[in-house]
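step=encode ok
step=design start
structure_in=
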């Protein structure tokens, strides 16, 4: 694998543009791709545009958009000039965007047309420029007369330093309020090279991007890594629902995709498992390991074709993968791989490729990075995962106290995650330290393990287990729509009037959910140790609020 003398965008971009000039680089699924040469011209045009807008090295600019080629173009142009990019998740509410604006003191916003409505509620007196990312039109600001010229020649010369603040990421963390994570160019470029050691990327490879580019997982591994290797990246114009994603996969036939557990878990629970359970013969066969493996292998072949038939790397990260779903992927011989990391580590710390996965394990640490279990439990060897290396953040923006809490004087980053290494050096994730529940007699209770059990019970969509007033409480969201369909299919003698139908079905669904909740509590308590038994199960009527990587924002429910 190639190495670089420096980790600087101003050196990397001209190098890849020259090296892979005629390769496809960036595109929407249904549009003609930009080649690397065309991408290079456009990046220089945006740099000239930024100059004309009066933005200079050290200034901060927010990127607030859904994925598109112009997102990557804008990001690369800013990095090459030393302008600090602030990628903001598209699902941030206006008040969250307002907080980022004020905390970061950003001078400009590059925003997609689809999100412009969120500007209506903002106080933006101190913002100098707002640019529509779709076409680089200045929509607000003193320099609205400035026009983007793709072929304009760059006037200045820029050599940003690799270890200075380059990217400011405001996390939508599951356990705390958003913090501004400060990353350098070296952090993210070095981590892209670290990621490339896990899975070989060829210049002929095609990536399909479905996660937000404003999340460091997609940004580093789904954008920087393929661009460094001369590969191509395609984006969707709409959210990745099945009706959008399946045709896109058939058209692009991607070799690589990055996802989060919830996406593949949903595919398994809503598409694959119902097909198996539909017939009595397959239901019975699925209870025995040899025939279950055969069924899963056949389902896996069908799934592989659905994903375009060329996948060699289906990366899963952002949270722990459900054990039942992972068993299916293994038996289906689907090319999945697990990764682990955090925004603060740019992000990847450990992972494997599809040829060498281990059940419910992540993989070895990435190259040129140190990982250790701090203060491990003498009985289980479990403890907090600490990391050290060139991919560890500079700190939290304007928050030295929080920075000192997580970064030791000798450079170790405290991840806040619990883990354990096996004898071969493979890391396994046990859960978040903040989520750990200590029982009445000092026992460690891992809520994620109980949630996995709950989530595999029929008609359960998702759950969280928390401690309230000394009790272990499960909040459970059932699939009400699925239950309604089942009851409608069975109930043929319901009254003809729509109102009566609705009232009767609603009543039957409520009753069914109550019965399921009672059964579920008994089911779980029969399968966990006495310290982990659920004392109260509460039906949660709505889906839980989630982060960009579809993790539940647990702190909202404590």
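sequence_out=
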């Amino acid at each position: 694998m190639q190495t670089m003398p420096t980790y600087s965008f101003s050196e990397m971009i001209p190098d890849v543009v020259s090296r892979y000039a005629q390769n496809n680089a960036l595109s929407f699924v249904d549009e003609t791709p930009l080649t690397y040469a065309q991408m290079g011209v456009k990046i220089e045009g945006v740099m000239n545009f930024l100059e004309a807008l009066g933005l200079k090295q050290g200034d901060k600019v927010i990127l607030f958009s859904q994925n598109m080629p112009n997102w990557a173009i804008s990001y690369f142009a800013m990095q090459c000039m030393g302008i600090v990019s602030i990628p903001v998740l598209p699902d941030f509410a206006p008040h969250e965007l307002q907080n980022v604006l004020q905390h970061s003191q950003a001078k400009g916003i590059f925003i997609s047309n689809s999100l412009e409505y969120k500007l209506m509620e903002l106080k933006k007196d101190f913002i100098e420029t707002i640019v529509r990312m779709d076409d680089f039109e200045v929509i607000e600001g003193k320099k609205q007369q400035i026009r983007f010229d793709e072929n304009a020649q760059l006037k200045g010369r820029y050599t940003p330093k690799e270890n200075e603040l380059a990217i400011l990421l405001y996390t939508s963390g599951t356990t705390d309020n958003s913090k501004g994570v400060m990353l350098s160019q070296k952090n993210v470029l070095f981590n892209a090279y670290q990621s490339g050691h896990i899975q070989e990327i060829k210049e002929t490879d095609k990536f399909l991007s479905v996660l937000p580019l404003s999340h460091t997982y997609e940004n580093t591994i789904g954008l920087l890594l393929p661009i460094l290797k001369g590969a191509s990246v395609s984006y969707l114009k709409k959210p990745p629902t099945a009706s959008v994603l399946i045709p896109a996969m058939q058209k692009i036939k991607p070799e690589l995709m990055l996802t989060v557990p919830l996406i593949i878990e949903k595919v398994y629970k809503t598409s694959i498992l119902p097909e198996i359970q539909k017939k009595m013969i397959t239901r019975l066969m699925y209870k025995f390991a040899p025939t279950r493996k055969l069924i899963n292998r056949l389902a896996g072949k069908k799934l592989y074709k659905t994903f375009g038939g060329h996948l060699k790397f289906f990366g899963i990260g952002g949270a722990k993968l459900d054990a039942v779903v992972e068993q299916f992927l293994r038996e289906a011989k689907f090319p999945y791989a697990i990764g682990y990391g955090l925004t603060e580590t740019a992000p990847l710390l450990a992972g494997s490729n599809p040829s060498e996965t281990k059940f419910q394990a992540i993989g070895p640490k990435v190259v040129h990075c140190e990982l250790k279990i701090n203060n491990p439990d003498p009985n289980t060897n479990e403890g907090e995962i600490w990391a050290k290396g060139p991919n560890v953040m500079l700190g939290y923006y304007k928050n030295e106290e929080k920075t000192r809490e997580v970064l030791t004087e000798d450079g170790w980053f405290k991840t806040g995650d619990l883990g354990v290494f096996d004898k071969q050096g493979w890391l396994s994730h046990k859960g978040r330290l903040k989520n750990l529940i200590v029982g009445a007699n000092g026992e460690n209770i891992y809520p994620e393990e109980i949630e996995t059990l709950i989530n595999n019970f029929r008609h359960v969509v998702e759950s969280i287990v928390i401690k309230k007033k000394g009790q272990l409480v499960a909040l459970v969201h059932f699939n009400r729509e699925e239950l309604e369909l089942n009851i409608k299919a069975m109930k043929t003698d319901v009254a003809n009037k729509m109102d009566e139908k609705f009232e009767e079905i609603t009543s039957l669904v409520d009753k069914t959910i109550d019965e399921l909740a009672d059964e579920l509590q008994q089911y779980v308590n029969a399968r966990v140790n006495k310290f982990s038994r659920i004392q109260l199960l509460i039906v949660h009527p709505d889906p839980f609020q989630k982060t960009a990587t579809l993790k539940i924002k647990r702190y909202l429910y404590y």
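step=design ok
step=annotate ok -> The first strand starts at residue 24 and ends at 28.
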